[in-house]
């Protein structure tokens, strides 16, 4: 028996030592990897700037995923601002002769693709070529690739050009079947974030706003694709409705592609364009490597700071989303930094906690008293994401930004019937009339519902109040276009929810101008990227581990719904949040 325990103990010790050794080996590899990534990159003559499958275009430094959960992720993340700057630089770089778009499945949001497309369109004015090649091409990738002078498709490839659609999932019957009660309080008939818990079908109001939104976005994108490919509008609609892009020969016939060739033939075609001999190597350089090739400007002078606010808005402290404690700290630092002459708040958020949004808005209002504050919208600036923009001197939106959703709601789940069916009951002992106005087993008391409703209504009035001040409209005017409704950036400009349609670069230029800065200013990004070590320790957080595992299994959209029902912090909050996300997949 003694020898048995000795063997067990020895094995446990060996496992622990092995784990420690592996951990330190992993850390050392990360260090060397980080050191290696800082090496300068040489841009050779006759190079081609390449947007390929290994490029993730992200809106904010907080979106870059590193650490132990992404050790196998080989994709290089590039900030959209850096990507646009790289394309602008390549326009006048004698070593860059053209651009090759080789992304079958582009990792980027709709407004990021818009900005890339605009930059490439401008690049073409230099007289340099832009070619694109695809195998199994997603709609988002084709939207970008269609800007090319020539589009080449694999003979056995396809282009998934289909238009836009959305599918809304409903949980009311599921909740009723299993005895899950859900108390919902909302303001705004268009505040459809809670509809899955209230109905078994889509409401007329939600159907109306979704139809308008999808048609606005599709009109913007389809018009640009058709114009680039020189296809008549009516013909293009037939091509999309008929899914002709799924068949390579039909795609070629209907002008979606210029030629069906293999990838090797495509590379040879580019070499011929560059007048390279057969023995010469084709020099392709990715966006990430090209950005690394040119040294950063001197950062000691005056700055326009870009504060990225990407993800859901939450109370507390965290990194990957927008956490009030963290952002209050960032804003105060920018306010006190004398080298920062103006701030651009880049918002890419569907909203979240009303309380956290209010905290952030207040600090931004204090910042605005000391220096110019300009807001730029990315893919989303809805609910709390729109709310925090109300401190701005000026708001820029992209045409396809999901904007507005001026509304408030609260979702309170309880499990009384489910518990009773399984023999679980409870009694309450309390000191006051409403000491337990809410219980996960018994739900919300009538008086509790009344008070939460007052809270929701009060929050909505506060929301509209700040919008009226910033947009210089009456309560009635904002209320008529609020009610939780989401608008495209194009419509938001028409109804006065934003000032201009423009990019992040446009917002930066205006902020610099408002601060009285000439051409000699630098652009600094906040928050800074996490170091590999910081990301590792962040990943080791128990909640982060479980969240990432569940999210990977059930998908991000389903995880958000599950989190709304199960997360105690979210259950106790009044929410300013958009009901859905739209992607051009």
Task: Characterise this structure.
It is built from 23 helices and 24 strands. The chain is an alpha/beta fold and 585 residues long. It has three domains: 1-39; 47-162 and 243-293, Alpha-Beta Complex (2-enoyl-CoA Hydratase, Chain A, domain 1); 303-577, 2-enoyl-CoA Hydratase, Chain A, domain 1 (Alpha-Beta Complex). The strands form seven sheets. Strands 10, 13, 15, 16, 17, 21, 22 and 23 form an eight-stranded mixed β-sheet that branches. Mean pLDDT is 84; it is low at 28-38, 66-74 and 536-540. This is Signal peptide peptidase SppA. It comes from Chryseobacterium glaciei. Residues 123-265, 366-517 form the Peptidase S49 domain. It is found in: Membrane.
Shape: globular
The number of helical runs is 23
Number of separate strands? 24
Distance between the termini: 62 Å
The first-level CATH class name of the largest domain: Alpha Beta
Show unreliable segments: 28-38, 66-74, 536-540
For the largest beta-sheet, the strand count, sense and barrel status come to: 8 strands, mixed
Q: Rg to the nearest angstrom?
A: 26 Å
The CATH architecture of the largest domain can be given as Alpha-Beta Complex
What is the helix fraction of residues, given as a range? Answer: 40-55%
Structural class comes to: alpha/beta
Q: How many domains is the backbone divided into?
A: 3
CATH topology of the largest domain: 2-enoyl-CoA Hydratase, Chain A, domain 1
Return the average pLDDT rounded to an integer: 84
CATH superfamily of the largest domain: 2-enoyl-CoA Hydratase, Chain A, domain 1
Q: Strand portion, in percent? A: 15-25%
Keywords: Hydrolase, Membrane, Protease, Serine protease, Transmembrane, Transmembrane helix
Domain Peptidase S49: 123-265, 366-517
InterPro entries: ClpP/crotonase-like_dom_sf, Pept_S49_pIV, Pept_S49_SppA, Peptidase_S49, S49_SppA_67K_type_N, S49_SppA_C
Family: Belongs to the peptidase S49 family.
């Amino acid at each position: 028996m003694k020898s048995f325990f000795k063997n067990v103990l020895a094995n446990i010790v060996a496992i622990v030592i092995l784990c420690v050794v592996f951990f330190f080996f992993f850390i050392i590899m990360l260090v060397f990897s980080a050191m290696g990534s800082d090496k300068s990159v040489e841009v050779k003559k006759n190079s081609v700037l390449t947007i390929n499958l290994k490029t993730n275009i992200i809106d904010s430094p907080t979106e870059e995923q590193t650490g132990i959960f992404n050790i196998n992720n080989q994709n290089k993340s590039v900030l959209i601002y850096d990507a646009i700057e790289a394309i602008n630089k390549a326009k006048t770089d004698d070593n860059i002769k053209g651009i090759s778009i080789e992304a079958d499945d582009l990792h980027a949001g709709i407004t990021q693709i818009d900005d890339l497309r605009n930059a490439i369109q401008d690049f073409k004015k230099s007289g340099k070529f832009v070619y694109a090649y695809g195998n199994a091409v997603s709609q988002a990738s084709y939207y970008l690739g269609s800007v090319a002078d020539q589009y080449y498709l694999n003979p056995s490839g396809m282009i998934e050009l289909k238009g836009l659609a959305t599918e809304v999932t409903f949980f009311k019957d599921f909740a009723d079947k299993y005895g899950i009660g859900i108390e919902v309080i909302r303001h705004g008939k268009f505040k459809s974030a809670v509809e899955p818990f209230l109905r078994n079908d889509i409401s007329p109001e939600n159907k109306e706003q979704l139809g308008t939104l999808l048609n606005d976005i599709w009109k913007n994108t389809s018009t640009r694709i058709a114009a680039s490919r020189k296809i008549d509008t009516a013909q293009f609609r037939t091509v999309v409705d008929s899914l002709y892009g799924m068949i390579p020969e039909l795609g070629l016939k209907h002008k979606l592609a210029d030629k069906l060739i293999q990838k090797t033939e495509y590379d040879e075609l580019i070499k011929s364009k560059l007048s390279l001999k057969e023995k010469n190597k084709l020099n392709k350089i990715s966006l990430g490597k090209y950005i690394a090739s040119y040294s950063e400007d001197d950062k000691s002078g005056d700055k326009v700071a870009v504060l990225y606010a990407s993800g859901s808005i939450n109370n507390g402290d965290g990194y990957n989303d927008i956490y009030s404690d963290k952002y209050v700290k960032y804003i105060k630092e920018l306010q006190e930094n004398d080298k920062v002459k103006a701030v651009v708040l880049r918002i890419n958020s569907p909203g979240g906690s009303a309380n956290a949004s209010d905290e952030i808005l207040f600090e931004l209002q204090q910042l605005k008293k000391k220096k110019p504050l300009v807001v730029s919208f990315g893919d989303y600036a809805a609910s709390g994401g729109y709310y925090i923009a109300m401190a701005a001197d000026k708001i820029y939106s992209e045409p396809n930004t999901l904007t507005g959703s001026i509304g408030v709601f609260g979702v309170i789940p309880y499990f009384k019937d489910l518990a009773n069916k399984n023999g679980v009951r409870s009694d309450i002992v309390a000191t006051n009339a409403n000491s337990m106005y809410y219980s996960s087993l018994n739900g919300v008391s009538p008086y509790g519902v009344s008070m939460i409703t007052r809270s929701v209504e009060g929050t909505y009035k506060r929301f509209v109040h700040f919008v009226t001040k910033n947009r210089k409209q009456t309560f009635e005017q904002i209320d008529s276009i609020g009610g939780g409704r989401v608008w495209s950036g194009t419509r938001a400009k028409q109804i006065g929810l934003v000032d201009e349609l423009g990019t992040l670069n446009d917002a930066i230029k205006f902020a610099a101008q408002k601060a009285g800065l000439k051409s000699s200013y630098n652009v600094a990004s906040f928050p800074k990227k996490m170091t590999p070590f910081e990301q590792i320790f962040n990943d080791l957080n128990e909640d982060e581990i479980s969240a990432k595992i569940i999210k990977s299994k059930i998908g991000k959209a389903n995880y958000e719904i599950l989190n709304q029902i199960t997360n105690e912090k979210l259950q106790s909050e009044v929410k300013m949040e958009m009901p859905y996300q739209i992607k051009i997949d």
